[in-house]
Design a protein that fits this description.
This is Haem-binding uptake Tiki superfamily ChaN domain-containing protein. The chain is of the alpha/beta class. 56% of the residues lie in helices and 12% in strands. It has helices spanning 3-8, 13-21, 55-69, 89-108, 120-130, 133-145, 157-169, 172-178, 184-189, 195-220, 231-245; strands at residues 29-34, 39-45, 74-77, 112-115, 225-230, 250-252. The protein has a six-stranded mixed sheet with strand order 4-3-5-2-1-6, with helices on both faces. Strand 1 and strand 2 form a beta hairpin. The longest helix is centred in the last third of the chain and has 26 residues, at 195-220.
């Protein structure tokens, strides 16, 4: 089955979120797809930069167990965090949440950790081809700033916004694609409206196309995989992974 067919069979977030909100699915969500010689393990967490996040202990256990059983396996993380080996575990969690913890514990075992996310400029380019560039820029900056509003974030939302605007101001390719350089004054005055949710949905689709393409290559290479991602995204990807592996998941309570 091609990546496109996998994508066509994915549930939408509109279908996934009610299952979370009404308690049908709770996080952490842990499931394993088993074949006779390999495993594809999924852990869906709630994003958090808090050291006290109880999911961190589960990440530690999973990474340790996975490294022991599959030393040549691959761990998939939602974010690139290559410099976490210079952090303490607390610093890694504060900076990059559960992705930081994943990289930190994997580093202890010299395990390979990969991020399957498409390059940010590539995502922006595709979105700007389909939507009004100013709507895209505002929506994507808002998404990036949102984690700064969580309890445990090392920076405030205002600081997060300043970092995003600084990043954009120094990225010539993004400025060329958007056709302008976003400023704080512009960001706070500009209104996207309902179109924002459509842009986010398209962004998720672009992400998933890349993620599933890369996951398919990894699985076909014969590796066991541990994937640690945000919970709702894991639930969305799970049906495609079930089709890829060819077995039903064993959900672990």
């Amino acid at each position: 089955m091609t990546t496109k067919k996998y994508l066509n069979n994915l549930p939408t977030f509109k279908n996934v979120l009610p299952r979370v909100r009404n308690g049908q699915v709770k996080f952490p969500y842990l499931a394993a797809f088993n074949t006779k010689d390999r495993e594809f393990i999924l852990l869906g967490t709630r994003h958090s930069n808090e050291i006290s996040n109880p999911h961190i202990e589960l990440i530690k256990k999973l990474v340790n167990d996975f490294a022991e059983r599959y030393p040549n396996g691959i761990i998939i993380s939602e974010n690139n965090c290559h410099d976490t080996d210079r952090d303490s575990i607390d610093e890694a969690i504060h900076r990059v949440g559960e992705s930081g913890a994943t990289h930190w514990y994997a580093h202890l075992h010299n395990m390979a950790v990969v991020c399957m996310e498409p390059p940010y400029p590539e995502v922006i380019t595709k979105l700007c081809q389909r939507f009004k560039p100013k709507d895209v820029v505002h929506t994507m900056i808002e998404i990036a700033v949102e984690p700064c509003k969580r309890i445990g974030s090392l920076i405030t939302a205002e600081q997060g916004l300043e970092r995003q605007l600084d990043y954009w101001s120094k990225h010539e390719k993004l400025i060329k694609t958007a056709g302008f350089t976003p400023t704080k004054e512009w960001f706070k005055k500009y209104k996207v409206g309902a179109k924002s949710s459509t842009i986010i949905g398209e962004m998720v689709q672009i992400r998933d196309e890349t993620i599933l393409s890369e996951i398919t290559k990894l699985w076909k290479s014969g590796k066991s995989i541990l994937m640690i991602y945000g919970g709702t995204h894991i639930l969305r990807l799970a049906p495609a992974i079930e089709q890829l592996v060819g077995t039903e998941p064993q959900v672990i309570e």
